[in-house]
Amino acid sequence: MRSFPLDDENRPLFTVGQVSEMLEVQQAFLRRLDEFKVVSPSRSAGGQRRYTRNEIVVVRYVVELIDDGLTLPAVRRVLELEARVRELEAERDALRAALMALRAQRGAGD
């Protein structure tokens, strides 16, 4: 089955104007997010920002955090810490699986 560009949530398709309209935020706000490296969209050949569907989800989350009173540097830190937690959870899960496999192997050898 053939996939379409919109099916890829990591494909940079959406302009600043489109994202601004979708999320009802100012275009200047989106540019500030890029300046503060909170969300770093890719650039088109002409240098225009292009957002993926995943980045739009992050921007929507950032708007919620700002509405809760966080500053942009604080939002960036929250995003960094959440990413680190996801990494550590994945590492924990891999270690648990390896431990279970070792226990199963030891149990089968008895």
Describe this protein's structure.
This protein is mostly helical. Strand 1 and strand 2 form a beta hairpin. It contains 4 helices and 2 strands, in the order H-H-E-E-H-H. The radius of gyration is 20 Å and the shape is elongated. The protein has one domain: Multidrug-efflux Transporter Regulator, Chain: A, Domain 2 (Orthogonal Bundle), CATH 1.10.1660.
Q: Topology, pairings included?
A:
Elements: H1 16-23, H2 27-35, E1 42-43, E2 49-50, H3 53-67, H4 72-109
Please identify, by name, the CATH architecture: Orthogonal Bundle
Return Rg in Å: 20 Å
As a percent range, the share of helical residues equals: 55-70%
Domain count:
1
How much of the sequence is in beta strands?
A: under 5%
Uncertain segments of ≥5 residues (pLDDT<50)? Answer: none
The CATH class designation is Mainly Alpha
Structural class: mainly alpha
Put simply, the count of helices is 4
> Mean of the pLDDT scores?
92
Q: What's the number of extended β-strand segments?
A: 2
Record the strand order, biggest sheet. 1-2
Give me a quick take on this structure:
It contains four helices and two strands. The chain has 110 residues and is mainly α. The model has no long low-confidence stretch (mean pLDDT 92).
